[in-house]
Amino acid sequence: MFKRLREDIRCIFDRDPAARSAWEVIISYPGFHAVMHHRVSHWMWTHYLRWLARIVAMLSRLLTGIEIHPAAKIGRRFFIDHGMGVVIGETAEIGDDCTLYHGVTLGGTSWKKGKRHPTLGNDVVVGAGAKVLGPVMIETGARIGSNAVVVKDVPEGATVVGIPGRIVRRAEVSEQDLKRKDFAKKIGFDAYGTSQDLPDPVVNAVNSMLDHIHAMDSRMETMCAALKALGGEVADLQMPELPDCQIDIDTEIPAVTESTETTSEIK
Fold it and tell me: What is the CATH number of domain 2-168?
């Protein structure tokens, strides 16, 4: 029991930079209180003290604003950040190292008996206001974006956003992506060479420009090779390295003044 308690406190320090001491967590974190109350009520539920378990769950809801059914199965190192408005249904199952934010609902879509709430694998994060509905499976390492509504299974490591929830995967590195990266490095460009999980119109536009420049560069090399084959003279010029153009906003830019030589030449 005390080992579980220490784990629950330690995981809060790992996921919430605002946590300063164990006493602060124990006294003032409603998510921690709700999990502790659920451990007690779930033990009562499994030992057929179900009326008493529901009383403990109701008191926990009044104190924390978090509603967890005593029958819900919750793994180790479970953290509810902020917590207000979280609802976890009767047949919900949550794996180890999962994190929920405020306003999350793990709810059902049917009044029939049996499994009707979601199952979360290990290391799942559900963002603020998200709704995961029905007996769906959220695989290990999945991420549910804020305010998303998920009604279908989510594969391992995927990210879900939007209403209804749509899966956004990390794109596999293709040959075209490698060409973009190499060419961006060649011309001294790195900011948008590769994109992240979510689509970005700026990234797409810059990638299209890199594709176009790379195609033009390849065509020019082909033309130069053809001219050499015909006996033409083509200068072998190396691509110049671009200087580091990062700007320090704290550094003042010196004023531009005209030199004496420039002024006399203009006259």
Answer: 2.160.10.10
How far is it, in rounded angstroms, from Cα 77 to Cα 7?
A: 6
pLDDT tens digits for range 235-247? 776 665 544 444 3
d(CA 157, CA 140): 6
Q: At what angle do helices 30-46 and 2-15 cross, to 10 degrees?
A: 150
DSSP code string of 67-85 = EE-TT-EE-SS-EESS-TT
- Category of 201 on φ-ψ map: left (φ > 0), alpha (ψ -120 to 50) or beta: alpha
Q: What is the rounded CA–CA span in Å between residue 167 and residue 161?
A: 7
Q: What share of the chain is helix, strand, coil (3-state, %, to 5)?
A: 40, 15, 50
pTM: 0.60
Q: How confident is the model at residue 39 (pLDDT cuts 50, 70, 90)?
A: very high
Flag whether pLDDT at 260 surpasses 70: no
β-pairing, 119-120 vs 137-138, is parallel
CA of residue 202 relative to chain centroid, distance: 19
Nearest to 148 by CA among 115, 112, 118, 114: 118
pLDDT at res. 265: 42
| Collapsed DSSP state (helix, strand, coil) of residue 168 | strand
Q: Whole-angstrom Cα distance, residue 33 to residue 1?
A: 15
Distance of alpha carbon 130 from alpha carbon 120, whole angstroms: 14
